[in-house]
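Why predict the complex rather than its parts? Because the way molecules touch one another can change local conformation, and only a joint prediction can capture that. The input here totals 551 residues.
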Amino acid sequence: MSAVWTIANKEMKDAVRSRWLLFYAVTFAVLALGLAYVGNQNLGSVGFENFSRTTASLINLCLLLVPLIALSLGAGAIAGDQERGTLAYLLAQPLARWELLAGKFAGLVLSVGTATIAGFGLAGVCIAFYATTLDVGTYLLMLGLMLALTSVMIGIGMVVSVVSSSRAQAVSAALVVWFVAVLFFDLVLVGLVTGASLGGRALIATLLLNPVEIVRVLAIMHLEPDLTVLGPFGSYLAEEFGKSTATAVLIGALAVWIVAPISLATWAFNGRQS
Amino acid sequence: MSDENAVLVIDKVTKKYGRLTVLDAVSLSLPAGAIVALLGANGAGKTTTFKCILGLTSFKGRISVTGKSVTWSGKDVRKIVGYLPQAPGFSNDDTCHEALQFLGHLRSVPDARVDELLDQVNLARQRDTRIGDLSGGMKQRLALAAALLSDPPLLLLDEPTANLDYESQRELHDLLVQLRSEGRTIVLSTHFVDHVAEIADRIVLLKDGAVALDRPAVGLRAGGGDITVHLNGTSPASVYAALRDAGVKEEHINPMGVSLQDAINRELATMKKEDGQ
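Output of the joint prediction:
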């Protein structure tokens, strides 16, 4: 068994044992089912909606919840081990630093991913049973985007974890990152558009700086065939790139966001003396 | 002893944290089948020496274990070094078997070795007990089993007798003597020389990051007039009283005999005199 897989396996076992995984999966399932069930209330009826509408309702919930859980778990990965005294002990084993980090990253992504799939899956089965229309493709796309966002946020959390001196400091910093990425960035974008009269190209460049926004735009683009639903920004995107090129650019940026933080964390961890 | 035959060679190792010199040109060469006591007060550089041997921190100089350079082959070196830290970083929720199995997988050790070691350190009955439910002595024995997983030729034990009662210390000493007879080199760090007086073959004293003394323990005992008192039914209290009456200081009396500390202090005083001349 490779060292990376051994560490990943241990991380998953610890996640199952701590029960946060179960709590997270159940929370996800309950919220997804709740959204699907009450989604038609505004239209005068209550009952399970179809996949597309449920997916659309879930986007905002996911974009709040997934980064929060992934960032905080990533932040606790190294700083928590250091605080418990397990980090020095692990590093004294025949294990390269990158292997430890890669193993923890893989273990956390698989744990959170499994919980997300379980939560989504449970809701999906219920909706599929009762809903009138079935758009499984969109639902699976949504799931894929959430897993990608999970990987990005765990990577960012691990960067924070590696450079922090305590678990509390790491988790606090991770919450700041969450606040900026999920809540504050939107305001900055609006400010830039209105105040600084940011052009379309500059706006897209700014958007690529935030993986949460990339996932949001990708999700909306595939839920709504008309990009103008994204406002002037969507119109610019459609005119300048077209839907398929825009999708490729956004997916490429998301891939960079998956690789870059964990690479940065490894570099910082290698340079750190225990 | 030539470096080719040595299990561990430390050659002019210097470690600095900023402006603070923690190790200052430390050199040691340790043979196979020896127990070496690394002594020194807190902050003398004992744990840093271990970190350097394990390649956990950068340093100037050269360290090799069975000829493998720590600088260039850190991972390979850690495979052949068993390490028992002051506070082993086990997860309290793991059972003894799970903890060793995990570490065993990192060292590519077959699962059968885990049960063999649990048996060797008298923890076979605690195989499926949570580590959080073990006593301090049991945890220490488990950590020793972890250090022995890959059957390493070199063991680094950081304060192994701290937090152990007298009976557990005796058990640990017996085990270490057995391991030495198997040809392993054991480096024990401690700031209580009395804890290792009976079993050490060699005493290395670190002071302010430098080797202040490096002598065979036998020589020190002979020169220092070390005394072992066998009680033979006499009450310990009356023996202690007799020793005090004979002028032996209270801090030098312990159940394992009179400490080596006097001998070491004498040796250091002699060295200072020689330096002065």
